[in-house]
Amino acid sequence: MVGEHIDILNAAETPPFHMDDLHVGEDIRLRYRYIDLRRPEMLARLQLRAKITRLLRQFLDEQGFLDIETPMLTKATPEGARDYLVPSRTHTGQFFALPQSPQLFKQLLMMSGMERYYQIVRCFRDEDLRADRQPEFTQLDIEMSFIDESIITNLMESMIRGLFKTVLNEDLPDPFPRMTYQEAMRRYGSDKPDLRVPLELTDVGDLIADVKFKVFAKPANDPKGRVAALCVPNQGLSRKQIDDYTNFVAIYGAKGLAYIKVNDINAGRDGLQSPILKFLPDNAISAILERTKADSGSIIFFGADKAKIVNEALGALRLKIGEDLKLVEKGWKPLWIIDYPMFEWDENRWISLHHPFTAPNVPDIEMLENNPGTCLSRAYDMVLNGEEIGGGSIRIHSPEMQSAAFKVLGIGEQEAREKFGFLLDALKFGCPPHGGIAFGLDRLVMLMSGANSIREVIAFPKTQTASCLLTSAPSAASTEQLRELHIRLRKQP
């Protein structure tokens, strides 16, 4: 075939960057996102996303789930983050909220007899952003009636196993390992541990509780304190590397990073190097070396503070050392984290570790009200390579138990009626036992595609300051629009 003429369909200016330029700044890429999306790797990621969502829908459809939409304009409810508020023109001085999740609506669907619901849904949270967070994000939202934890976790891991086999030809374990929240925090300092990193934390508080070194002894004898060790085998870290890690843990509130270098395990105290050795007796040193399984060439880092600070600091250090020293194993390491505490104490009140509709594992209301700090919840999170990709729970289906949970959280009867009256009323009409889970679709696609941020798998993402460089949103509203909404702006100082 010979071309006889050419039609110019449209003129095109020179693009702001070349398609093969790997060093274009993200701000430029987001400003000209329609150009950025022309690149083969971006197209491949969106194609992968479409394939993943298609397979997830197919699995759930075959299992008898109904795809049901829930409202985008709804009522503000406390679910752990700030709501995005939408002013109402027709109801002066009142506001809708964009949903942080369809949590209450999917529970109402269970009360309606739908039994198996799912939805791929947009959710909105006005919170500080990170690489795996966006102000608007996508969830695969799921709820089922007449189930217990084993039914839904087995079904969900079957779905994820099939997805990985079809998309990546990867065989995930069957079944996924289960680990309690308490064990995860003790061994890894995190409730979303990356099992590809072989390093673990070791409690040593009982070994140094009686030493005169107050830095260790004080948290060791504090019920809310923790002294833990992280043994890094045979790496020969330099003093500069140790100083860098000391600065790193300071980000998480640690006041320092004590260490012991094991030059020769057979030489006793003489084979060790550390500024804290003079504060520790021989029996404590020997016990620490034995418990941490240290050997010649090892270095032992210590965290000693409030348990929360130690967990966050050493948990993050564990991952950083694993990455820096190339200790991260290849492959996929999924697991379920179970037996979360129902509540945690925050300064002067109890707060829900998940959300206030999570069922406790106690059989009666009196146990919940009298011992909230010891109650575990019927919650379960799916973790993959250090990322929480799904979280859910069995829900409270009794109005009396739901009211008791609100009471523990300091939500009085009047406040409960104002915020959740529609839920409490619905529970009175024969609510079945039910539970569910929500998967972060953006995060799942990010992991499966090998991207470093969920912004790389969203067609038009926001920046880390929750703005859109492409459309210059958010932007100012006109005086006429504000007047219609009965809104007057204050002058900023």
From TrEMBL:
GO MF, one example: aspartate-tRNA(Asn) ligase activity
Keywords recorded for this protein, A-Z: Aminoacyl-tRNA synthetase, ATP-binding, Cytoplasm, Ligase, Nucleotide-binding, Protein biosynthesis
GO cellular component terms attached to this protein's record: cytoplasm
SUPFAM superfamilies named in the record: Class II aaRS and biotin synthetases, GAD domain-like
Reactions catalysed: tRNA(Asx) + L-aspartate + ATP = L-aspartyl-tRNA(Asx) + AMP + diphosphate
Function per UniProt: Aspartyl-tRNA synthetase with relaxed tRNA specificity since it is able to aspartylate not only its cognate tRNA(Asp) but also tRNA(Asn). Reaction proceeds in two steps: L-aspartate is first activated by ATP to form Asp-AMP and then transferred to the acceptor end of tRNA(Asp/Asn).
Name of the featured protein: Aspartate--tRNA(Asp/Asn) ligase
Gene that produces this protein: aspS
